[in-house]
Design goal:
The protein is an alpha/beta fold. It has a single domain (26-261), classed as 3-Layer(aba) Sandwich (Rossmann fold). 35% of the residues lie in helices and 17% in strands. It has 10 helices and 9 strands. Strands 1-4-5-3-6-2-7-8-9 form a 9-stranded mixed β-sheet. Helix 3 (50-66) packs across helix 4. The structure holds adenosine-5'-diphosphate (ADP) and magnesium ion (MG). Magnesium ion binds next to helix 4.
């Protein structure tokens, strides 16, 4: 190799190392413009509303809690179904993706009741379950949503063995890989509830932290305690009190109130 060729090769290498691990990142070529017409996705439909403001507060708390070691893989769960996990995960992902410094990957790991794509109004072919059962590449299941820097990894085809798939080594490796490849990216994972399914418990050790959603006025203390006991050892970053207090200000929409509370503090 001539000196000029060597110099050129070195320049290419330097350019590549400048881009960090860019070359390792999967190509996110798929995109599906989100079409949100669900009023619960307040961060999009009513960004000025008090509820949207609460999600921005939740985001700020999360960034504050996680910034020292950038604990960027966060699972959203609750004791029971219907407490607002998915709404919290989607609204949080939307507000995070509006941050200049961060992008967001929202993963739908609730194979029993996948809802993220419904709330976002996104149609897709393959998702996480299809990737985990094999045969397709991760770049085939990551979808740019058109909302800020937000990418969706939807749940995928219905499967009979959600626990096995979500607790598998392949799932663990996927989260690790996505975490390492996107150092500035928050990974928000929507999961099934801890008391009726075991997926969230299995995935708890794959993530950096947990946001626990409690629907106020619906879920009793004993239920919450049972769920928290099941998550012993997990890094609970905070609890979201999600309460549908229907104090309708303009006669058209219900308003909801979310509070974020760091565990152990008032
Ligand atoms: N803060 C809220 N205000 C009004 N309705 C809510 C609120 N949170 C949840 N809901 C209702 O509960 C349903 C289930 O919410 P979702 O986030 O899908 O629950 P989960 O994922 O925990 O099963 C929503 O479609 C909505 O009808
Ligand atoms: Mg849900």
């Amino acid at each position: 190799m001539s000196r000029i060729e060597k110099a050129l090769e070195k320049a290419v290498r330097l350019r590549e190392s400048d881009r960090g691990d860019e070359s390792l990142k999967p190509d996110i070529s798929r995109s599906a413009e989100a079409r949100i017409n669900n009023n619960y996705i307040v961060t999009v439909t009513r960004p000025e509303s008090p509820a949207a403001e609460e999600y921005r507060r939740l985001k700020s708390m999360l960034i504050k809690e996680t910034k020292s070691d950038f604990l960027n893989a966060v699972m959203v769960t609750s004791s029971l179904n219907g407490e607002g996990k998915t709404l919290t995960a989607v609204n949080l992902a939307v507000t995070l993706s509006q941050e200049i410094d961060h992008s967001t990957l929202l993963i739908d790991a609730d194979f029993r009741n996948p809802m993220t794509h419904e709330y976002l109004g996104i149609e897709y072919e393959n998702g996480l379950s299809d990737y985990l059962t094999g045969g397709i590449d991760i770049s085939d299941v990551l979808i740019k949503t058109g909302i800020g820097n937000m990418v969706l990894l939807p749940a995928g085809s219905a499967v009979k063995n959600p626990v096995e798939l979500l607790s598998s080594k392949k799932m663990k490796a996927l989260i690790k890989e996505l975490k390492q490849r996107y150092m500035d990216r928050y990974i928000i994972i929507d999961t099934p509830p801890v008391l009726s399914c075991t997926e969230a418990i299995a995935m708890g050790s794959f993530v950096d932290g947990v946001i626990f959603v409690v629907k106020e006025g619906r879920t009793g203390i004993k239920t919450v305690e049972d769920a928290l006991n099941m998550m012993e050892g997990f890094n609970i970053l905070g609890v979201v009190f999600n309460s549908a207090s229907i104090s309708d200000l303009d006669g058209d929409y219900s308003y909801y109130y979310y509070k974020y509370k760091k565990k152990g503090k008032e």
